[in-house]
Amino acid sequence: MRKPREEMIAETRAKLIAAGRCAFGTVGYAEASMDDFTAEAGLTRGALYHHFGDKKGLLQAVIQQIDAEMTARLHTISAGAPSRWEGFVEECVAYIEMALEPEIQRIMFRDGPAVLGDVSQWPTSNGCIAALSHSIEQLKDDGVMADIDTETAARLINGASSHAALWIAKSETPEETSKRAVRGFRTLLDGLRVKA
């Protein structure tokens, strides 16, 4: 029995994303050959063009997938924290530290900005700002965060964490840079905390 068309389309997209992710994560965007990863997925270059337009479109799809996975991991971290404030801080710190993971480092923080441009202009950026704004509102309502304009705080925290991750990804000594970035970021967030 033939599979429904929607299921076949979803499977083809998933195969291309998996093959693209493997190639982008190992050899990088510039070195990844469309013919290699379409062949690896058992598909044609035409399938890639049909579903994603081009290699750049496939990179965007891979980034969306990784971003969703990162978000799920971050939610798990914040949900397991002893307080909302600690969850917020640990979630932000974990995002920065993810820049040490080879696949995330290469795809999200090296090739992504090089190919797709400024991270703050990516489609996923608005979701990050909205999620941060929601958390900040809760922290302000709890009386643990200073009375600061919510959108301003969200954009500043988002910018600081994104740039810290980019700094780590491009560093000659990423482990050391990560330690410095996390230490500084914790101090920055602590400045927004209402002291008892």
Helix-strand blueprint:
Layout: H1 5-26, H2 34-40, H3 45-52, H4 55-79, H5 84-97, H6 102-116, H7 123-141, H8 150-170, H9 174-190
Helix pairs in contact: 1-2, 1-4, 1-6, 3-4, 4-5, 4-6, 5-8, 5-9, 6-8, 7-8, 8-9
The CA-CA distance between the termini, in Å, is 67 Å
Stretches where pLDDT falls below 50 for ≥5 residues?
none
Percent range of helical residues: over 70%
Which term fits the overall shape? elongated
Oligomeric form: single chain
CATH class type of the largest domain? Mainly Alpha
Structural class assignment: mainly alpha
> How many DSSP-defined strands?
0
Q: Could you say how many structural domains there are in total?
A: 2
Global mean pLDDT? 93
CATH superfamily of the largest domain: Tetracycline Repressor, domain 2
Largest sheet, in brief, is: none
| CATH topological fold name of the largest domain | Tetracycline Repressor, domain 2
User: Strand-residue fraction?
Assistant: under 5%
The number of distinct helices, counting runs of at least 4 residues, comes to: 9
Radius of gyration: 19 Å
N to C succession of SSEs: HHHHHHHHH
Domain HTH tetR-type: 10-70
Protein name: TetR/AcrR family transcriptional regulator
Keywords: DNA-binding
DNA-binding region: 33-52
